[in-house]
Amino acid sequence: MAHTFYSVRTGKNKNTEGFEFPEFLDLFFRSFRNFQDEGYFDEYLGWRCVDMGEVPGKVSDVELDILLKIRKQGIWPIEANLGDLEEDDVFDLIEYLYQTVSKPIDGTFHDYARCGMHWETFRKSEGEAEFAQKMNELLALYKGAFELSPQGEILHKPEKGFESIFEADIPSSNENIKARVNSAVLQYRRHGSTIDDRRQAVRDLADVLEYLRPKVKSVLTKKDEKDLFNLANNFGIRHHNDQQKTNYDAALWLSWMFYYYLATIHVLLRKLGNQSLNK
Questions:
Q1: Are 131 and 252 within one domain?
Q2: Do 144 and 24 belong together in one domain?
Q3: pLDDT tens-digit readout, 175-232
Q4: Are 19 and 142 a contacting pair, CB within 8 Å?
Q5: CB atoms < 10 A from the CB of 251, how many?
Q6: 5 domain-assigned
Q7: Which of 113, 148, 183 is a domain's end point?
Q8: Could you tell me if residue 27 is inside a domain?
Q9: DSSP string of 50-102?
Q10: What φ, ψ does residue 165 adopt, rounded to 5°?
Q11: Quick check: 276 pLDDT over 60?
């Protein structure tokens, strides 16, 4: 476990709760440069040789590639646009760099004018793992609660106390259930998700419970079953009618319903023991 120093332990450090965006941006750029200097982007984004000049990688025009994929101008090259970058830009760049990083393994050393290594062999999976680890270390220092997933997506961190539910396997062999739950979790946690995105994620979890409803009767009382579905039906999540309650703090209630439904699905699937769910 990493040592926590005095000023952070006692709350006297102004950055105890995390760095503000300018500090995080500086840390991101310095980490990017370290990976770049060590050749982790040579395979895809190219490199520079004192004899050959700029040598393109697998992505022949990085600025065009970013424009087509991220749909943004003015974020590459990073150093030239650093002062204009905002949080969304940096997160887009982190996801893009995850797709274009690979660990240099072998090559030849060009000693003229101390040019350095010309890498020829790379391992993408190892580069992704090392890059993700470093980015998550930086994101952990940022005031915003985000993390980079193993698939290279910036996600909202789980609320405190709910971390384990995202790490746990969905206790079902039914691919329909697993796909719907995983899709709902990703939609809810994805950086930039809107209230409508989160409402849809809760709706998808409610649909999974509806799918399980015939089996649920064996492990829930009639009242508990009714209450479970009344939440989604009466708070403007699923069906729409003039009896529904819509004058509530959507962000707060959607968060509560999402975690409640997700936890309930895990509990019910374990209780049902996966019996006949594939029928």
A1: no
A2: yes
A3: 999 999 999 999 999 988 899 999 899 989 989 988 888 887 777 777 776 767 676 6
A4: yes
A5: 10
A6: no
A7: 148
A8: yes
A9: TTTEEE--SSS-HHHHHHHHH--SS-SSHHHHGGG--HHHHHHHHHHHHHT--
A10: -70, -25
A11: no
CA distance 98 to 196: 28
What's residue 234's pLDDT?
Answer: 61
CA distance 65 to 229: 46
Considering the domain architecture, whether residues 143 and 42 belong to the same structural domain is answered as: yes
User: CA angle at residue 176 from 172 to 178, to 5 degrees?
Assistant: 45
Q: List the one residue out of 132, 162, 161, 159 whose CA is nearest residue 147.
A: 132
What domain range is 183 assigned to? 158-272
Number of C-beta neighbours around residue 259 at 10 A: 18
Answer whether residue 246 shows pLDDT above 60: no
pLDDT band with cut points at 50, 70 and 90 for residue 274: low
E strand or H helix that includes residue 14: none
Structure confidence by residue, pLDDT tens digits, 97-121: 999 999 999 999 988 888 889 999 9
The residue type of 90 is V
**Does 97 lie in the same domain as 117?**
yes
Final residue of a domain: which of 127, 148, 169?
148
User: Which is higher by pLDDT, 52 or 21?
Assistant: 21
Does the pLDDT value for residue 241 go beyond 50?
no
CB 229 within 8 A of CB 210: yes
- Give the count of domains, the chain: 2
Q: Are residues 186 and 77 part of one domain?
A: no
Q: Tokens representing 230?
A: 């009344």
Same domain, 122 and 181: no
- Write phi, then psi, for 12 (nearest 5 degrees): -90, -10
CA max distance for the chain: 80
